[in-house]
């Protein structure tokens, strides 16, 4: 396989991973929105809408690259129980950190305008993660790869 083809395949895999992460984030924000306190409900809705828009853009990008977009799972296993508003806030921060990580992978795998868009999506997710958690990391999207976070929530059985 030549280098150009390998790069295209790597970019498509990174696009699919970002799409899968956005599917999981949309699902996760459904949980967040149902549990988060009234004072943060607008913030949760804004994030939900942002992830839906990114998801839809990624579906188009995967198709434009010649791929068949990965479908959303019927349900996702959450990384921890979300019985209350405090857990919903932690979940939102976790979702954003995971999304930032997959966008970091897309930045590495792409060039040009797609790389710029992936960097912007990574930045947006990192900013939302800080807003939810109150904590930041030096290199958003990269720290998640070195820690215990491992991609997106797994589909439930």
The multimeric state of the shown protein is single chain
Q: What is the H/E order?
A: HHHHH
Mean pLDDT figure: 89
Number of helices: 5
The portion of residues assigned to helices is 55-70%
Radius of gyration: 15 Å
Query: pLDDT under 50 segments (min length 5)?
Result: 146-157
End-to-end gap: 36 Å
For the sheet with most strands, the description reads: none
Please tally the β strands and state the result: 0
Q: What spatial form do the alpha-carbon principal axes imply? A: globular
> Which band does the percent of strand residues land in?
under 5%
Q: What structural class is derived from the secondary structure elements? A: mainly alpha
Summarize it.
This protein is mostly helical and 157 residues long. It has helices spanning 3-35, 41-64, 85-109, 112-133, 143-146. Helix 1 (3-35) runs antiparallel to helix 3 and helix 3 packs antiparallel against helix 4 (112-133).
List the helices and strands and how they pair.
Layout: H1 3-35, H2 41-64, H3 85-109, H4 112-133, H5 143-146
Task: Characterise the protein shown here.
- The protein has 5 helices and no strands.
- Helix 1 packs antiparallel against helix 2, helix 1 packs antiparallel against helix 3 and helix 3 packs antiparallel against helix 4.
- The chain is globular.
- It has 157 residues and is mostly helical.
- 69% of the residues lie in helices and 0% in strands.
Quick tags:
single chain, 157 residues, mainly alpha, 5 helices, globular, disordered C terminus
């Amino acid at each position: 396989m030549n280098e150009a083809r390998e790069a295209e395949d790597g970019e498509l895999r990174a696009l699919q991973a970002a799409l899968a992460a956005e599917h999981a984030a949309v699902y996760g924000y459904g949980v967040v929105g149902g549990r988060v306190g009234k004072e943060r409900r607008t913030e949760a809705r804004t994030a939900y809408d942002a992830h839906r828009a990114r998801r839809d853009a990624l579906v188009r990008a995967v198709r434009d690259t010649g791929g068949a977009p990965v479908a959303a799972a019927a349900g996702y296993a959450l990384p921890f129980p979300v019985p209350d508003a405090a857990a919903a806030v932690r979940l939102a921060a976790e979702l954003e950190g995971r999304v930032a990580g997959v966008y970091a992978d897309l930045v590495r795998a792409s060039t040009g305008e797609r790389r710029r868009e992936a960097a912007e999506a990574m930045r947006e997710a990192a900013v939302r993660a800080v807003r939810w958690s109150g904590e930041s990391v030096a290199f958003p999207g990269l720290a998640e790869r070195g820690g215990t976070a491992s991609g997106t929530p797994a589909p439930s059985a």
